[in-house]
Each structure stands twice: as structure tokens, then as C-alpha cells.
Write a structure and sequence with these properties.
Elements (H helix, E strand, L loop, with lengths): L2 E6 L1 H7 L16 H7 L1 E8 L10 H17 L5 E3 L14 E8 L8 H9 L2 E5 L22 H12 L3 E3 L5 H10 L3 E2 L17 H9 L4 E3 L3 H4 L7 H13 L6 E3 L19 H11 L2 H15 L3
Parallel strand pairs: 1-2, 2-4, 3-4, 4-5, 5-6, 6-7, 8-9
Helix pairs in contact: 1-3
Bound molecules: zinc ion (ZN).
């Protein structure tokens, strides 16, 4: 089963380690090359994430440093990796190759300057999340109590995404921001979110939000972080599958994908401790769903819904 995973934070960990971790096989990386191969991952998306404690004037440099590790460590040292730069590149992957795509989690690195967003785009970023959990110059994140939506800058970023056929990612965005993105974005996506009806966490989506995405034929990629899976935070594979069941009950069977959050999380669903354990999830899914539906969750739904 070929898997497309819409979110991991391996670049953040490589950056945090100052480049000392070996992307090929470091035990500290849940989504290292060896584990992606073991787990059947065909495409991995790599988020650029600059944590809140980095001073504003250093955020762009931190983002560029993470892109350096993407080119130098992930792509540069592994000839079987292919950089995904265009939406048709997904169709060009040969057996034994792993596609790698850059995404941005939070618009902080660009400040208020769309020229800097264009630079990140030119370097390969193909999905833009306006916020992480906090408020920034583009929008409010889920943990900002003010609960505002998009600023003028945030709307300009969405228009930039539309013009260049980039995803606008609603994971981490405030509820008001979500609805504004749904109005404005041509290519909305939720790259790593679960169902709030199953686990009531602010990072998860209400049914109305999930339905609005499905009505647009947009994707929700379920996330493996236990606090987003089950309210007591201890989660089994079947608990994760309850989110898929729920999204299916809302009409999402052809709009559900996977967004692990590996290397951005320190707790794990039992049996899903790193990317190499993905066959456990696939086997469990095959007990509940037809093979073609599981192939849909693993990769084919995303391939059908990607921008053209
Ligand atoms: Zn995240």
C-alpha cells in the first residue's frame, strides 16, 4: 500500500539538532528514510515550522535553514528521493523512489512581505498554513482566545496560493479563519486534523467544517497525535480509525488521507510509533474497509483531489 503523508516535522528536528542527525536512519527521527521505506511511504511532505521562541528577525533565516536541510540532507544524501515541485510530479515517481514536498506551517517567517513568500514558493513550498497555534500577522491560530479570522495580509497570502495553485492549509487555524479560507481559497486542505465530535480538542474540526471541506471535494488528513485522537490521550489504532469512520459518516470516504505529524509529536498511538509501523494501520484499516477505500485513504484520494 503506497502512502502519501501530508505532514511531518523532520526538518524541524534536523534544524534543532544543528544538522547532526542522520536523516537516513537516525533513531530520533520517526520519519527517517529507512522508516519511510519500511512503512511504504511513497511521498512525504516536510513542514517548515519555526517555533514561537525564535525572534521575529530570525524567523526567515530559520525557515531557510530548514530548507537547506531539505536540499542538503534529505534530497542531497539520498539519490532515491525526488523533489516534488509540480502537481504532475506525483505521477512520475518510479518504483523505489520517494517523493518529497515542502510545506509551510505558519506564515511567521515571511513577516508581512509577500516577496518572501514568493521566495519560499520558488524554493519549492507547495502548501501554506497561515498559522500555527498562536496569532500572527496573517490570522489567529486555534489557541488565540480572540478568535479572529484573516488579516488583509492573510487574505493576500490565500490569493497568492490561488494564483500559484498552492494549498491553503486550515490545520491550526481559528474557526473564523477557517470559514474565511473556505470563502477565498481555491485549494483548501486540512493536512493534520481529526474530528471534534470524536475527540473534543481545539485542533480538531467540527462536523460543519469537515462537511464544508468534503462539499468542496477537499481533503482532511487524519493525524496520529494521541491528544487529538482520544480525550484521555491514550490511543489505539482502532481509536484513530473512529475518526475515519466519523468522517466517512459525513460523506468523506473519498476525501480522507493521512497526516502523521511524526517528528512533531512525542506521544504515539499504540502500534504507530514511527513511519515504519504504517503496515499496522493499513492492516487494521483493511479489517474495516474495502481495499479500494484503504488505497484511497493511503494516497489515491489525495491524488484525485490535488490541484491541476
Ligand atoms: Zn501542526
Amino acid at each position: 500500500m503506497r502512502v502519501i503523508d501530508l505532514h511531518c516535522d523532520a526538518l524541524f528536528k534536523l534544524w534543532e539538532s544543528g544538522g547532526t542527525l542522520d536523516y537516513g536512519r537516525s533513531e530520533e527521527l520517526a520519519a527517517n528514510r529507512e522508516r519511510l521505506i519500511q512503512g511504504g511511504v511513497q511521498v512525504q511532505c516536510y513542514a517548515i515550522f519555526v517555533p514561537p521562541e525564535v525572534k521575529a528577525e530570525h524567523k526567515l533565516q530559520a525557515a531557510l535553514d530548514q530548507i537547506h536541510y531539505f536540499y542538503d540532507e534529505v534530497l542531497g544524501r539520498h539519490p532515491d528521493f525526488r523533489h516534488i515541485q509540480a502537481w504532475e510530479d506525483f505521477d512520475k515517481l518510479q518504483d523505489g523512489e520517494i517523493g518529497a514536498m515542502l510545506t509551510l506551517e505558519g506564515a511567521e517567517p515571511i513577516g508581512s512581505d509577500l516577496k518572501q513568500l514568493n521566495i519560499l514558493y520558488q524554493l519549492g513550498v507547495r502548501s501554506i498554513g497561515l498559522t500555527w497555534n498562536d496569532a500572527n500577522l496573517a490570522a489567529d491560530g486555534v489557541l488565540e482566545p480572540r478568535g479572529a479570522g484573516l488579516t488583509v495580509l492573510g487574505k493576500d497570502i490565500v490569493r497568492f496560493n490561488n494564483r500559484h495553485k498552492l494549498f491553503t492549509d486550515v490545520a491550526h487555524l481559528s474557526e473564523k479563519g477557517f470559514w474565511e479560507v473556505m470563502e477565498l481559497a481555491d485549494y483548501p486542505i486540512a493536512s493534520h486534523c481529526n474530528a471534534r465530535a470524536v475527540c473534543d480538542h481545539p485542533r480538531n474540526l467540527y462536523d460543519a467544517q469537515a462537511k464544508a471541506l468534503f462539499d468542496r471535494d477537499a481533503m482532511i488528513h487524519v493525524v496520529y497525535y494521541p491528544p487529538f485522537v482520544k480525550e484521555n490521550g491514550q490511543a489505539a489504532l482502532t481509536d484513530l480509525i473512529r475518526h475515519i469512520d466519523h468522517f466517512c459518516s459525513l460523506g468523506g470516504v473519498r476525501n480522507i488521507g493521512l497526516g502523521s505529524d511524526f517528528d512533531g509529536i512525542e506521544q504515539f498511538v499504540d502500534g504507530l510509533e514511527h513511519a515504519g509501523k504504517l503496515p499496522n494501520l493499513m492492516n487494521e484499516l483493511l479489517k474495516h474497509y474495502k481495499e479500494e477505500e484503504v488505497r484511497g485513504f493511503a494516497s489515491e484520494n489525495f491524488l484525485r483531489c490535488r490541484p491541476r
